[in-house]
């Protein structure tokens, strides 16, 4: 192997990932491309699959896994946060409601940026607060486009259903009524990174009495447009 680091297992893992960068590969293909022993390749590939650094396609071939995309998206977080301030402020001003940006971290979502409504009754979500992935329109958005196994696991104990998430994927936005907190409604849309993977959720939230029981009908367009602007900021980096 070329460009060895002196750490054998790391060099072997890197050679497998580098091979998969060119496209899907069978176990035999990985053995041939890396020059490693078949048992070694199998052991490392399965371990990488467990950590989601490697996945499988419909033919059972090894492919690069979703965790690599997530790590790449995390590297772009500074760009996302830099763009979030003005975008959320504009969203708040257009809708008249508090606006937030959430990112998923394990089994919770974190509010990483917010623009609060300046007066009147509002839904305050402090930056840095963690909220469950089991309720709320932002949780729906962050879960709806996950791979099937993770989606199925995320639905266990959730206040929304697989049917609801199917509707989210079809519409491109989610709404919730009292899911996270009684009396609070919200509308959220996905922010997509350079690989088109959902990396964050933009939301507006406020009292149901003001947002109505169908908040998506009059807020979804503004939220989707804000999410698109943040996605564009990531792709331009």
From TrEMBL:
Keyword DNA-binding tagged: yes
Under InterPro entries, the record lists: GAF-like_dom_sf, HTH_MetabolicPath_Reg, Tscrpt_reg_IclR_C, Tscrpt_reg_IclR_N, WH-like_DNA-bd_sf, WH_DNA-bd_sf
Q: Which Gene3D superfamilies match?
A: 3.30.450.40, Winged helix-like DNA-binding domain superfamily/Winged helix DNA-binding domain
Any idea where the HTH iclR-type domain is?
A: 7-66
Q: Which GO terms describe its molecular function?
A: DNA binding; DNA-binding transcription factor activity
Entry keywords, A to Z:
DNA-binding, Transcription, Transcription regulation
Domain spans labelled IclR-ED? 67-236
Q: Which domain of life is it from?
A: Bacteria
A GO biological process of this protein is: negative regulation of DNA-templated transcription
PROSITE patterns linked:
HTH_ICLR, ICLR_ED
Protein name in the entry: IclR family transcriptional regulator
